[in-house]
Amino acid sequence: MDEVVTPPKVVRVIIPFGPPPAKPYEGTISGKTFTINRIIIGRNLLFPIIEGNIHNQQFGCSIKIRMTLHKIVIGLLILWLWTTGSIGMFSLFAWLVEPSVGAIFLPILGMFIFGWLLCLIPFKIEAKAATKFLSILLT
């Protein structure tokens, strides 16, 4: 793990078309636990933060990992989904009571689904890539 993980920096400057970083991940490794994330080139905020525990077993060890979003991204996602979901549901109920209001709930609930998919799909892609990289690294 030390070969691919560099200590975290507060500010990391990466030139978009420059050479890739020497180590693809940054984070901390302490004892039998680690918290790492991939060093992103560009503007992708939906990368997974990988938290792992190493467990000793009879014939080697096993690693249990958990991938989450950054807390700021989770907060913004909750704000987005709560706002669009609640306004969409209120407009749906208004439309059910009085159909002459129009189906304004459709674009608002579409924004809800868009926000959810905008977070889910890139996170799943990054998590799959991180899982593949870690499985190759640790075998």
CA radius of gyration is 21 Å
- The helix count comes to 2
Low-confidence stretches: none
Large-scale geometry:
elongated
Structural class: alpha+beta
What's the mean pLDDT score? 84
Spatial strand order of the main sheet? 1-2-3-4-5
Strand content: 15-25%
Helical percent range? 40-55%
Distance between the termini: 12 Å
The helix/strand series, from N terminus to C terminus, equals EEEEEHH
Give the biggest sheet.
Answer: 5 strands, mixed
Number of DSSP-assigned strands:
5
Report on the architecture of this protein.
Helix 1 (71-97) packs antiparallel against helix 2. The chain has a five-stranded mixed sheet, with no helix packed on it. The chain has two helices and five strands, in the order βββββαα. By secondary structure, the protein is an alpha+beta fold. The longest helix has 33 residues, at 105-137.
